[in-house]
Amino acid sequence: MEFVLPVARAPLQVFSQGLGTGASSASDLPPCLPPAASYTDSSDDETSPRDKQQKNSKGSSDFCVKNIKQAEFGRREIEIAEQEMPALMALRKRAQGEKPLAGAKIVGCTHITAQTAVLMETLGALGAQCRWAACNIYSTLNEVAAALAESGFPVFAWKGESEDDFWWCIDRCVNVEGWQPNMILDDGGDLTHWIYKKYPNMFKKIKGIVEESVTGVHRLYQLSKAGKLCVPAMNVNDSVTKQKFDNLYCCRESILDGLKRTTDMMFGGKQVVVCGYGEVGKGCCAALKAMGSIVYVTEIDPICALQACMDGFRLVKLNEVIRQVDIVITCTGNKNVVTREHLDRMKNSCIVCNMGHSNTEIDVASLRTPELTWERVRSQVDHVIWPDGKRIVLLAEGRLLNLSCSTVPTFVLSITATTQALALIELYNAPEGRYKQDVYLLPKKMVSSSPERFGVYSAGPRFPLPPPLISQGLNSFQMNTWRASTSRPSTHT
């Protein structure tokens, strides 16, 4: 089967904080941030990390980041994130004595942010060895990558990678003399695809795959349907904790942040069409509606479409509103949701962005033609200009808006990261034969058996738990009344 490869462009000079497009120097930095530990726009930063010879304080050079000197600043970012990730820190504290991942060799391909760093260090505390690359060429925080490299983690990522850099970094994580992964943690399926394509024999020793995004899950189901999935895979995206928290609440807050940082727009009165009404789409719609936007929804799933209507949104076809809307947001994880035909019909200055994982939801490749002019107006903001003078505002070249252009709520990501860690522990320690060569959901009882595991109590007042007799009665009722439900296949519980 064929996979869609990410379309990346030439490396761009961007900043992990703020939107300034002008050059800055150490003298411009606030006094609280020493120059040696901060981002600088020096000529050294223009050199490709692949051409640099860098070592951390321990003498190791098994990494490739933008600037190892940013490690101190990145360490502070990680420490701040730890304070907002009670679920993951609780798991680290509880399980580090048992070392449930001792002997695990995890190769990961995710967004490299402060929250991911807390996850990686938790996996290390639980006994795992990790090697990491980025799943998005724009989402890496360079200072965090430097901090991880300084701590001894082999990290190969920097913000503004080219397409060639992207695959080179993944290969450096996988193709290592004397080290072979036995677990995969993926976000989007690119790492899994690369191993299938280049190193299929590695799957003889790999015990399982943990996949976070809907795009990657689609690819796993395609492999399974074709009979090519040769190891068990855990679908984190559809787990109750990811769907109900990360996909909904994280996107509800970060969509506004990403749009505001890139466009400085006012939301009240704007007409917005959101393509897809899954949990991500629900979060985006709720946020924009609360800010006074007029929100339309496109959705092909009848259940989600009915939910959109019940929530007060007008269900439309994209062609019906494409000429009048001010903002187009894709949230499907699918391909070519917004086509060149749609882009041609948009009004002048329409803002186009993506909140799904894949960069193929918007057909950006069709805009790379001689008759259209691209104008970079600020970091991650391009004006694509038609011959008649009409222009659209394309954010992050169609890649994930919130992680490319802003930040995401740390507390919610703690829940997702904890789910990923539990999935890795479950697959790695599962007895032979428990999981077949198929795609599984993490059992709900595993992620909801202990509310404090996910930081419920740290988020606010304790919620009342049912007394033991009521719990026993509910369990009895379920067993006696719904016995037929126990006959469902256990492979996707």
From TrEMBL:
SUPFAM superfamilies: Formate/glycerate dehydrogenase catalytic domain-like, NAD(P)-binding Rossmann-fold domains
Any one cellular-component term (Gene Ontology): cytosol
Protein's UniProt keywords contain Ribosomal protein: no
Chain positions recorded as NAD(+) binding sites: 278-283, 299, 402
Entry binding sites for substrate: 113, 187, 212, 242, 246
Record CDD domains: SAHH (cd00401)
Statement: the UniProt record of this protein carries the keyword NAD: yes
Cofactor info, note text: Binds 1 NAD(+) per subunit.
Pfam families: AdoHcyase (PF05221), AdoHcyase_NAD (PF00670)
Cofactor (UniProt): NAD(+)
SMART domains in alphabetical order: AdoHcyase (SM00996), AdoHcyase_NAD (SM00997)
Keyword annotations of the record: NAD, One-carbon metabolism
Matching PROSITE patterns: ADOHCYASE_1 (PS00738), ADOHCYASE_2 (PS00739)
Residue numbers spanned by region Disordered: 19-61
GO term, biological process aspect, one: one-carbon metabolic process
Location of the S-adenosyl-L-homocysteine hydrolase NAD binding domain: 247-408
NCBIfam families in alphabetical order: PRK05476.2-3
Similarity comment: family membership: Belongs to the adenosylhomocysteinase family.
Protein name (Swiss-Prot/TrEMBL): S-adenosyl-L-homocysteine hydrolase NAD binding domain-containing protein
Organism the protein comes from: Anas platyrhynchos
